[in-house]
Structures are given as structure tokens and as C-alpha cells.
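Write out this protein's structure.
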Amino acid sequence: MRVLRALGEFMLAGARHHARWELEMSRRILGDRRRLFILLLLTLPAAVIGIAFADAAGGELPRLLGGKESYSPAYYTTTIFLVSILVGVVAGLISGCIGAGGGFIIAPALMSAGVKGILAVGTDLFHIFAKAIMGSVIHRKLGNVSVALAVVFLIGAIGGATAGGTINRLFYELNPVISDAFITTIYSLILGFLGFYSLFDYLGARKAASRQTAPRGTPAHEGAEAHGKKTEGAEMGNLPRRLQALKLPPMVRFDHDLVPGGRGISWVFLVASGFLVGLAGGIMGVGGGFLTFPIFVYVLGVSSMTTVGTDIFQIIFTAGYASVSQYAIYGFIFYTLAMGMLLGSLVGIQVGAMATKVVAGITIRGFFALSVLAGFINRIFALPAKLSSIGLIPLSKEAGAVLDTIGIWAFFIVIGLFAVWVIGTFLKNIPVLLGRR
């Protein structure tokens, strides 16, 4: 039980850190006119020129970009672009409001709309890379980046991303349905565990709040930030201490400003950690950023300040390498969707973040659990039809279609109601928010 609780905290910390990263990237892009101008330049070809050429070529453009006939949707339309913006808005609302990476709902949303799993993963990775490259300001001047740490970590991350992309492509070449079933299974396991853990965490917090009034304006991710500050000092858990005590050369030194002489970790553990992060990113898309923070802080014993700066540094290369070398060159990226999601998420995450100022933290934790569980239900209900179609379980097509439909409707109803609630809360409290400024 203790191991499961530790794993739940580990995953929760990763989700919250990814949300903070999303918010920081969004603020940097929106706060710089040059970056906004570049974003529009990148978006217009995908939204206008791509659609025009696709229509003129009778839908042949995706094949010129490396697309395959089995992709769905495999064409550019204005509707698809607008829907992608909506998906980005909702993902941004989740990241900004509940303090957990909204990327968890991107793949389920795209797959529910008919996009093949491998295309959803590749598109999400490209969307993360575009956001990282546009929003990042390396923290080198502040001393928050350990280049040595990042470079050794990247050796493993690139290997893991290659393995993850290769696995996805092999399954897809074998049978697109097997590929979808594999990605759906991975998402079901991750979202299921995180969702139920978050639910129990929320129920426990609600029980405690019945004895003491919960403070308003406390986002769920503030708890992670406060917890992270505890790890900024010299204190470390038992696992990081044991790993750092194993002097397997060469050793990588870091945190010189925090501890006299700095801390050191063997390159073996760095490469292994990077491989795990790259593998998750290559398979799930959002998985890389989700794992980096808790691995650095809770496993390797890196201070949270160094972790944040180094993570921003390495995610550009990890997401860039994975999206381009493992997906883009094989035609597994839907550029229109990626740019639409990027535009939508920039707006959604700002609205969501402002809404947290007028919403009780306990309520936000409840919505976090509900949103993750909605993604879990969506994927777990889609899985039987996929397993049946490849002969792994006996199930009629009609029954599989009914289960799939239930999962889709449950997912979009929950996510839709959440989006309406956040936007409504924001609009209702605009005078309060303006007064706080």
C-alpha cells in the first residue's frame, strides 16, 4: 500500500509540474509580440494554405507529406482546424485550472474523433516541441541549468524516444488496430491509476476539510510547489541518497550553489532515467514531460530549481528529436491539428489559471480526479472493440461500438461541462479578478 501511495504522489507531482511548465511557456509566448508573430506565421500555412492546396489537389496533399490512406482524418478542412483549437482550449483550461497537464486529454480526444493513435501521439509531441521552442528562455544566466546533467540525460532520452517511436511504428505497420489497442492500453493504465489515486486523495482532503475550512484561491499545484521547495535544500530521501552513494564512474556533478562541492550521480542512473522518460514520450507523447520532474527530484536527488531549468533545456531536444525523427518523417504528424491545439491552449491555460484565484483548492482537486477518470473511461471503453477486432477477445461489433460510444459521450460530456464551468466562473468573477490586480 505504501508503494502504491508513493507511486501516486510521484505521478501527481509530475502532472502538476507539467502544468506549471505549460503555463510558463504560454505566458512567455503571449507576453512577447515577436513570438506571437512567429506563431501566426507558422499557423497560417497550416490553416489556410494547407487547406487550399488540399482542396485543390482533391485531398492528395497528405500523401505528399507522408500520410497514409488509413489515417483518419487524412485531409485538411476548416472544421478540423477549428476543432483542434477547441481541443487546445479545453486542454489549456485543465492545465491552468486543476494544475495537471491537460495533455492527458489530447490523445483520448483526438482518438475519439477518429484520429489514429500513432498520429495523435506524433501530433501531440510536435505540439509540445513547438510550444517549447517558442516559449523557452534557458535559465543559464540564473545558474538553473546543469548542462552536464542535461547532456548525459539526453543520451538516454534519445535512445528511449527512438525505442518508443519504433515500437509504435512497428505495431502500426503490423496492423493499425493493434497500434491503437497498444496506445489505448498504455493510456488506460496510466490514467486509471492516476485517476483513482487522485479520487482517493480528493476524498481524503475533503474529509480533512470538513474539520478545517479549506482556504480559497489555493490551486492544486501550489501544494506541489510547496513540496518541491522542501526538496530544494540539502534534504533528500533515502533512494536519492543510496543512488548518489554508488560511485560508478563517470560521475556527473550538479547543485554546486546549494551544497559545498555539489552533488554527484553516476551517469548510469542518468542515462537509465533519460531512457525511461524518452520511451514514455515516444509512446505516449505527453509522457516525457510528465515523468522528468519527479524522477529528477525524488529519484536522482536533484534540487527542484536545477530540475526546472534543466528540464526546460532538455525537453526541447527530447520532444524535437522524437517528433521529427520518429513521427514527422514518417508522416505521423497532423500539422493543422498541432498548430490549432497550440493556439487554443495558449488562451485556455490563461483563463484556467485566473479561475483558480476564485475557486477553493479542494474543488480543483476534485475536478482533477474527475477529468483524469473521464480520460480513463474513454480509453477503457474503447479498448474492447479494438481487442475484439484483432481476435483477442470474443465480442460482437455492435457491442464494441456501444461501449465505444458510451466512452466517447462520457468523456466529452465531463470535459465539456468542466470547460463551461471554468469559463463561466472566470466571466462571473472578472470584477473580482480585476480588483485583485
